[in-house]
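Page 47, continued from p. 46.
Same chain as before, 208 aa.
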Amino acid sequence: MILLKNICFSYYSELFKLKTKVFENFNAQFDKDKIYTLTAPNGYGKTTLLKIIAGFLVPQKGELRIENSVVDFKNFPYDKISIFYNQERVFYNQLTVKENLYFYGFSNMEGIINGLTYVNLKTEFLYEKFENLSSGNKAKAVLIKNIMENKPIMLLDEPFSYLDPESKESIKRYLTEIKKERCVIIATNNEKEIKEISDETIRMIDVK
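Result:
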C-alpha cells in the first residue's frame, strides 16, 4: 500500500547555512492489515517519515508510492491519508469541539458519538472550547476527527502520550479492529506501550 524507495531527505537552515541529513536512500514498505511501529529516541526521523508519507514534506530524492501509484507531491492524494500529530495546531482554540468537527465537515452525530465512545467521553465534551481542554482531552478531540475521517492510511505520532490508561486500551482496540481494511503506522518513543498490538516494528536508529 505504501512504498518508499531510496528516499533522501535533509533539513537545511538558511540562517546558519547548516544541512542536517535525516534519510539517505531509505527504503520501506507498509501494507494494510498491519499495525506498524516506528520507534527510536527523539531526533531519529520518526515524525519526519510520517510527514513525508502524509505529503507535508517533500524528499530531495527518491520515490513514494501509495496504492501502487507514484506520488506527485504537487498533486498529493490527501484523501487517502489521515494523520494525528501536534494536536495543538489542528483545532481552533476559540471553537468548541463540536464546532471544530463541523468545520472539518463532520456533522453526523451518530459518527461523532461513536468517536466519543472510543475515547471514553460523554456528549458534554463536545460543547467545551478547545482552548479550555487539558492536553489529554485535546488529543482525544483530534483522535475523534481521525476516526471519523475513515481513510485507508492512518498515521499516528505519539497518540498515547497524554491519554489515561482506559483511553489507551480503548484506542488500541479500535486500531486492532480497523487494521483489516487500513494501513496503520504509529510513531512512538515507548515501544512497550503498544507491543501487544504491533505486527511489525521498525527501529529507526537501525535504518537511518
